[in-house]
Amino acid sequence: MIQISGSDLKNLDKRYRTTLINSLSGIRQVALVGTMDRNRQSNLSIINSVTHLGAEPSLFGYISRPHTVERHTLENILETNYYTFNFVTQNFIKNAHQSSARYPKNKSEFKECGFQEEIFENQFVFVKEASVKMGMKFLEKITIKQNKTDLVVGEIQNVFIEPSRLEKDGFVNLDNTLMNSGLDTYYVPEKIAKLSYAKPNSEPQFLIY
Amino acid sequence: MIQISGSDLKNLDKRYRTTLINSLSGIRQVALVGTMDRNRQSNLSIINSVTHLGAEPSLFGYISRPHTVERHTLENILETNYYTFNFVTQNFIKNAHQSSARYPKNKSEFKECGFQEEIFENQFVFVKEASVKMGMKFLEKITIKQNKTDLVVGEIQNVFIEPSRLEKDGFVNLDNTLMNSGLDTYYVPEKIAKLSYAKPNSEPQFLIY
């Protein structure tokens, strides 16, 4: 194994370290975050930090870093309280990645990246092309004191799912949707198995393989 | 699209809703969390909530939910301040899933699930079979007030990577490592592309396809 110590980490070239640490956090679902400001100017940003915080109430968090391209997103959320998470298939890889470019505030990434806006109940702006969409209501912003990064906590208000993706038990099949690692490397998931509930002293069984 | 409203969500059967909300948070890297208590009793738990919080210092968070199987893990972290994240390949799918079973505190999931302990510097317990391993130092536990879930923040102390997985630019290739969605469905990543840095008014280029 290659070993990288804490002091090695501190001495690495900045770009190398950023790439290393980003990719060490693993491969994760890509979400496009849709927002509007109070003048209904829309914004779209790409993240991979959506995290399940609880099912009752249905809370998801995501990480907003200081001085990143997501600043417009966080400003809009704090202004209007509403935002959306949108999962797209690999067909939209270039469009999704393009939303990481630093557009000025008066340009909408929806138009610039080739996505259509879908306004719902006058306050949610979804990506029309997305396969799975969630409307979120902002609850809390928690600042991590070590580096001023924010955990943005919200509650799911509504969900839209392509019918073929919703299974009988409530499981949402995300086959063919975009995931990424680091800042530029994209993946799709390949399903390998569904396993039985794990109990001590019995081996888990493959339910699908 | 199938629409599920906020009131629909509240009225869903509990098990259906748990499956739905868990899978809606997306597919994510599986990490095995290794800890020891002050008497050096080891513990291993499975999570998929490792989240990048920053590269300088190198901070990762993960979510510890109240009253879950991860309780021993959090207790050990608060007792000793150290823990490890371990990524394994799909060869270890059954072993990894088995670590979600509720073993009593005096049983080590390392032994029960067929993993070997690898002690480093007398304070980190790694999974010997893992392809990528990180030693973490506990910094802060932030409780999300809506549901008493904890965000556990730590700093990377050391990293071990299989040589073939570390690329020239610092990118860690996680091909063939386990990811999951919800509580029981496992995936491996299929790489589709690396894209050039996105800039306004120019289309991103495929660097690898």
Structure explained in plain terms:
The structure is a homodimer of 209-residue chains. The first copy, chain A, has helices at residues 6-11, 14-24, 71-80, 93-98, 109-113; strands spanning 2-5, 28-29, 31-36, 42-47, 51-55, 58-64, 82-87, 117-120, 124-127, 132-144, 149-161, 179-181, 185-195, 206-208. With 209 residues, the first copy, chain A, is of the alpha+beta class. Chain A has one domain: Pnp Oxidase, Chain A (Roll), CATH 2.30.110. In chain A, the strands form 3 sheets. In chain A, strands 4-3-7-10-11-6-5 form a 7-stranded antiparallel β-sheet, covered by helices on one side. In chain A, strands 2-12-13-14 form a 4-stranded antiparallel β-sheet. In chain A, strands 8-9 form a two-stranded antiparallel ribbon. In chain A, a hairpin with a 3-residue loop joins strand 12 and strand 13 (185-195). Chain A starts with a strand and ends with a strand. At the A-B interface, strand 1, helix 2, strand 2, strand 5 and strand 6 of A face strand 1, helix 2, strand 2, strand 5 and strand 6 of B. Chains A, B: GO terms for molecular function: oxidoreductase activity. Chains A, B: Its cofactor is FMN. Chains A, B: It holds the Pfam family Flavin_Reduct. Chains A, B: This is Flavin reductase family protein.
